[in-house]
Amino acid sequence: ALAQQTAEATQEINEKITGVQDITAESVSAIETIVSVITEINDIVNTVATAIEEQSATTQEISNNVSQAASGVQEVNNNVNQASAVAGELAQDITGVNEAVNDMSQGSQQVSESATELSQLAETLNGLIAKFKV
Q1: From CA 97, how far away is CA 70, in angstroms rounded?
Q2: What's the CA gap between 90 and 62, in Å, rounded?
Q3: For 2-33, how does the pLDDT look when each residue is reduced to its tens digit (9 = 90+)?
Q4: How far apart are CA 20 and CA 31, in angstroms?
Q5: For a FRET experiment, which of 4, 36, 51, 134 has its CA 20 to 30 Å from that of 119?
Q6: Could you tell me which of 63, 61, 85, 88 has the C-alpha nearest to residue 74?
Q7: Which residues, 6 or more positions from 35, have their beta carbon under 8 angstroms from its beta carbon?
């Protein structure tokens, strides 16, 4: 009778251990999937950050061109008295474009900073998930 109880208890313990092993394997698989998704997100964030850097450089070039154009308009305005009214309107338009470019540049910088923060969070999460691997 004692041997029978021991055998039954041993069988029950084995079943519980197998259950725990199955759950552990499922957890490891789920964590690996999460790591894969985080890696994909990190790749996307890096791509976005690169695109934002390129956009920022282009925006700066546009800003420089607008500034040069504003200088040219001012020179024409000084040299041609007959076109002063038209040149004044053009200078206002260029100033509006310059402000829009500056706003865009600031927005690009904010997105870049957010992308950097998201990338850092992804790296931190990758590190935390790595600690759960068996």
Answers
A1: 11
A2: 16
A3: 889 999 999 999 999 999 999 999 999 999 99
A4: 16
A5: 134
A6: 88
A7: 126, 129, 130
pLDDT score for 82: 59
pLDDT range class, residue 59, cuts 50, 70, 90: confident
Cβ atoms of residues 67 and 92 within 8 Å: no
Tokens of 65: 């061109």
CB atoms within 10 A of CB 69: 16
Q: How far is it, in rounded angstroms, from Cα 79 to Cα 91?
A: 15
DSSP-derived letter for residue 98 is H
Question: How would DSSP label each residue in 1-65?
Answer: -HHHHHHHHHHHHHHHHHHHHHHHHHHHHHHHHHHHHHHHHHHHHHHHHHHHHHHHHHHHHHHHH
Give tens-digit pLDDT for 61-96. 988 988 898 888 767 666 665 556 655 776 787 787
d(CA 106, CA 112): 10
Tokens standing for residue 66: 């607008």
